Fold Gametogenetin-binding protein 1.
Amino acid sequence: MAKAQRPAAPQLALKDGLPHEEKGEREEAVDESCPKWCAPRASSDESCPKWCAPRASTYQSPLQKKFRSTDTVGFVESELKKILSVQREARLWKVGNPEGRELLTQPDITLEEAGMVDGQHLLLEEMDEMGNWPPPD
């Protein structure tokens, strides 16, 4: 799965304090305007697929957050809102599947039950100041 990186930007990590580069991980540049929150999967840990949440924002560095397939949609949305300092209402979309993007409306189901598979992304969409959702792409 491709991960976004902004070259020349400082690397930041969330949980263990180690930047990506110090962990020996390489990143591929993709859409520079859309950083992704990624959790790389350890090859020995099949219960921890890699999920990414693209977000157009002012952040200059990709940050990591690891989610398990047993985490609920509500938990993931809540964690991403904390990490991204989202104060307004937000909603979580599953993207990267052939059907296009799918709104995840059931907060109590797991990512696995929501049909998330390795290689898919999550999109956290924030309501604007006027109380409107962004127009569909």
Summary: Confidence is low (pLDDT under 50) at residues 1-49, 54-62. The longest strand covers residues 90-97.
